[in-house]
Amino acid sequence: MEPALYLLARAVVGVIQALPLKWVARLGRGAGGLAYWLDARHRRVARRNLDLCFGREKSPAQIRALARENFRRIGESFACAAKTAAMSLEELRPHVELVSPQLQKPPAGRAPPRMVAAIGHFGNFELYARSGQFAPAYRCATTYRGFRQPSLNRLLQGLRERSGCLFFERRVDGPALRAFMRQPGVLLGLLSDQAGGQNGLELPFLGHECLTSPAPAVFALRYDCGLLIAVCYRIGLARWRIDATQEIPTREAGKPRSLSAIMADVNRAFEAAVLRDPANWFWVHNRWKSRGRRTACQP
Fold it and tell me: In terms of DSSP bridges, do strands 226-236 and 255-256 run parallel, antiparallel, or are they unpaired?
C-alpha cells in the first residue's frame, strides 16, 4: 500500500510542478472546495471552531461561508506549496515578499544575532522555510515530526530541503539542534499555533483557554535569542507577504519574563493575524484542547 501511495504522491507533485503557479492556485482552491463537501470530519471541526470564536458576531450562514473559503485557502496553500518548493528564488520573488527589518544584514563587522520566530499555519506556511533566501545573513532551521510512512517522509523532506532550510526531527535530532542554536546568525522557526500537548501552558487564544507550547519562549531564553512573530498573509491569488516585524520581549528589567507571559504575547499576536483575515488560518485543527476533558471543538 505504501509504495502505491508514494508513487501516486510523486505523480501528483510532478503534475503540479509542471503547471504555472496561478493555475496551481486555482486548482488548489477547487480541490479545497470539493474537500469541504467530502471531508465531513474536518468540516465539523472548522465550523465548530469558527462558531466558538465568532458565533456571537456572525450568522450561521456567514460561519458556513467562512469555513468554505477556509477549505479553499487550505487547498490553494497545499497545492502552491508543492509548486513553490521547486521554484528558484528569482522565480519566487514576484510572488513572495519578506517584511522584517530585524532580519536585514547587520552592520559590517557584527555577526547577526540569534533569532527565534514563532510561526503559525497562516497562508502558504511552507514558505517560511524560504525566509533564509530573502534574509541571507541568517541560517534558517525548523523542527518537524516525521510521517510513519518512510517513503512519504522522504518525498516531503526532499521538497522542503531545496529551500536551504535545515530540518530537525523533534524526536531524534535534539543534540544536532542544540549545537545549531549555539552558532551566531541562526533563525529557528517554530510552529506555535497548534495544541501544545499535555505539557502545554493553558493560556487564552481568541477568547478561550487552550494548551500552548512554550517552545518559542524556551528556546529564546535558553539561547539568548530575539523572538519574532512571523505570519504568512495571502495578499492575492498565488501572492504572499511574510510579515516578521513584531518582536516579543523576553526580558523585563534585565530579568527573564515568565514562559506564560511570553507565550500570552505570542497568542495575542496570532489573534491579531487571525482577525485580520480569518480565512487565512488553519481552522481544521482542534486548537482548543484542555487537560483531561473534551471541548466543544473536538469532533
Answer: unpaired
